[in-house]
Amino acid sequence: MTTALYPGSFDPATMGHLDIATRAAAIFDKIVVGVYDAPAKNVLFTTEERVALFAEALHGTPNVEVKSFSGLTVDFARSVNAQVIVRGLRAISDFELEMQMALLNRKMVPSLEVMCFMTSLEYSFLSSSIVKEIVSLGGSIDGMVSDNIAKALKEKYRKLKESASIPRYLNS
Ligand code: ADP
Fold first, then answer.
1. CB of 79 shorter than 6 A to ligand 1
2. Which residues contact 79 (CB under 8 A, 6 or more apart)?
3. Is 16 near ligand 1, meaning CB less than 6 Å away?
4. What is the pLDDT of residue 163?
5. Across residues 42-61, what is the average pLDDT?
6. Of 3.40.50.620, 3.30.930.10, 3.10.20.90, 3.90.230.10, which CATH number belongs to 3-170?
């Protein structure tokens, strides 16, 4: 049985993330989506919210499980018996960082393969940060995130506006 770990911040998951997870689920026996508990960037949603939102968006994909983790990705991969780490590539700009991380991870655990999926054309421009920026400015994110995530984003920014402090979570 081949298990793949798809790690990320997913703050929140976009249709681009969903696309990679479901395409990977068609190839591997099991996908564990690993949500970083403490990513090296500011997050809008709590870890529990990011896990719950992605899990709800993935309903109907039986071989995908969403879990949070802290510590090294390679350690989490080992703990869930993943032989492969899945990542997504949108543009050349993603490549440099993904290459560096893949080589570092393989240096730490040589048996762990890293497989990068090319984005689908329609999602190549999508990132969590751009979606958050659009919602914070009152724009439409139709087709960019699943319905439950669009609802959660609108609700989050409505609450932030109410408390009159709208941090700009744009660095993810
Ligand atoms: P990280 O903080 O690890 O970059 P992200 O949640 O931003 O976490 O992204 C997780 C993975 O999904 C990364 O490999 C990223 O390149 C990929 N990804 C993000 N958006 C898209 C997209 N629109 N299409 C394909 N892959 C994507």
1. no
2. 69
3. yes
4. 83
5. 95
6. 3.40.50.620
